[in-house]
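User: My instructor asked us to take a sequence, write out its structure as tokens, and then describe one feature of it. I'm not sure where to start. Here is the sequence I was given:
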Amino acid sequence: MIYNIIVPYIREFSLLNVLRYITFRTAAAFFTSLAIALIVGPILIRRLKKAKQPIRDDSLTFHKTKGGTPTMGGVIILLSCLVGTFLWSDLKNVFIWLIVFVTLGCGLIGFSDDYLKIARSNSKGLPGRYKFWLQVAVALIFFVSLQILVPHEFSMKLMFPFLKNACLDLGWGYAFLAVFIVVGASNAVNLTDGLDGLAIGPTILVAGCLGIMAYLAGHAIFAKYLQIYYVPGAGELTVFCGALVGAGIGFLWFNAPPAEIFMGDTGALAIGGALGGISTITKNEIVLAIAGGLFVIETLSVMIQVASFKLRGKRVFLMAPIHHHFEEKGWKEPKIVIRFWIISIVFALCSLMTLKIR
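Assistant: Let's start with the prediction itself. The structure tokens for your sequence are:
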């Protein structure tokens, strides 16, 4: 908004020329979102104190003490991220609006789930099948919109990192992959959100990595030099990523152990959907799986647990997702969170290595 309002006056006031640079506006979005999160956080926490998150009956014993902690903390992330994005991004860029749609769409699904849990005073919320198909609908609308609005900038090819000019043209089969990535990423972040600060840490790292990837993918010279797929206009998504990182750090201030507020499905589904959407636009689908390796591990642990129990009648882990397995083994919550953050840092660095190892 600020960018679109001031652009006509840039020639008259040379000082305003910094607004032309995506890097400057990304930094501005970061600090704006961070400030908003830190200001809004205490207000929302006080308002939600009466709306307590019901704890599942099958939760670990030491989790039952968290019953008084308010949920819907994802509202802090959504509000601060979107305000930062709207203020500093180029609102004429279609990619910004598409990512905002995915973020809000998945966020509203999560909000409905969180609200029903509070309203009904139980942990069931929105039925799983409804959540899934609503997510599929959001992802499908996102994909179709890409095809209609930016048919020349968007490709049906799956790009392979570490290899030069390696890609697989999936044709319309890419639609299934795009929907899978958005829905899968959304649910993966949600599965990871089980301990104080566990999900938001990797989110900050992955959003930062995708911000770098988006900037490079939208820069013709850098894209050619690094041999990555060039997507005109995708660089503007860096501003969104900067805002998401700022919002994430601001939320972490309140979500660090012991958490004053939980992210809830409102934040987890929205964040995952946004990360999946950005990776799809910038052709970094596999890079997302590398950077978000912790999310992948958490999801696979659930799938392995369910498959093993149905096929063999035995469980592989003491409890799934895998962070609960380590809780059952006696690890303290802060130790699990910090060690999982370390794993996320390693995955994030590996994803950035794909830029030079080709």
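For the description part of your assignment, you could build on this observation: The chain has a mean pLDDT of 91. Try explaining in your own words what that tells you about the chain.
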